[in-house]
UniProtKB/TrEMBL annotation:
Protein name: DUF based on E. rectale Gene description
Record Pfam families: DUF3877 (PF12993)
Top-level taxon in the UniProt lineage: Bacteria
Length: 179
C-alpha cells in the first residue's frame, strides 16, 4: 500500500496548523471522511476495508510521524498523531512556504482578493483562478502542474475578512464546486 499521498496531506495539514497557531510539541488529531481516504488510494471500499488498508500506516510512519493510531466511527476516521509527529513537521518545515505567506496575508485586515491573486502569481506563473457561483466561496485558485501543491484553494470575502479552505482535487469535484 502506498501511503505517500496521505502522509503528504497529513504533513500539509500540520504545517498549516503550525503556521496559524505556532508550534507546540503536542498530540494532534486529524479527521478524514471515508470518501477522502478513498481518493488518496484511488479505492472504493467501505469502513472495514479502509480500516484494513490503514492497519499498516503506523508502521509506515514510525520514522517520521511516530506511532500513528487510526480509529473510526462509521465513515469518519481519526488519525491520532503523537507529539513526535508535530516535532517532525516543525523540524522539517521550510521557512518560505506558500501556506505561511497565505496565512500571513489573510490574517491582516484590509486583505483583498487581488492581494491573494498576486500572492499566487508570486509563487507561480501557472495558476488557475475561477470565479465560483456558490454561496460558500467566491473564487477557486490552484497551481497548475505543481506536483507539490495540487490543492484547490477556495476563498470567500466576508466583507471584514477573507476565509479559505483547501480541498483535494477529487473532493472539490465531488462537492460539485467544479461545475
Amino acid at each position: 500500500m502506498d501511503f505517500a499521498r496521505l502522509e503528504k496531506n497529513i504533513i500539509d495539514v500540520i504545517k498549516e496548523e503550525q503556521a496559524k497557531l505556532g508550534y507546540r510539541k503536542e498530540k494532534i488529531r486529524l479527521y478524514y471522511p471515508l470518501s477522502s481516504l478513498n481518493h488518496f488510494f484511488q479505492l472504493d471500499v467501505d469502513e472495514t476495508g479502509m480500516q484494513e488498508k490503514l492497519s499498516r500506516f503506523s508502521e509506515y510512519e514510525e520514522g517520521k510521524l511516530g506511532s500513528v493510531e487510526v480509529t473510526n466511527k462509521g465513515e469518519r476516521f481519526c488519525f491520532h498523531i503523537p507529539e513526535e509527529g508535530a516535532e517532525y513537521v516543525h523540524n522539517n518545515m521550510k521557512e518560505n512556504e506558500f501556506i505561511k505567506d497565505l496565512i500571513g496575508l489573510i490574517s491582516h485586515h484590509g486583505c483583498k482578493m487581488q492581494d491573494i491573486f498576486e500572492l499566487f502569481r508570486q509563487h507561480s506563473d501557472q495558476i488557475t483562478i475561477e470565479e465560483m457561483h456558490s454561496d460558500e466561496f467566491d473564487y477557486m485558485i490552484c497551481f497548475e502542474n505543481d506536483p507539490e501543491d495540487t490543492y484547490r484553494y477556495c476563498f470567500k470575502d466576508e466583507g471584514c475578512h477573507i476565509i479559505y479552505h483547501r480541498f483535494l482535487p477529487e473532493d472539490y469535484e465531488e462537492f460539485g464546486f467544479g461545475k
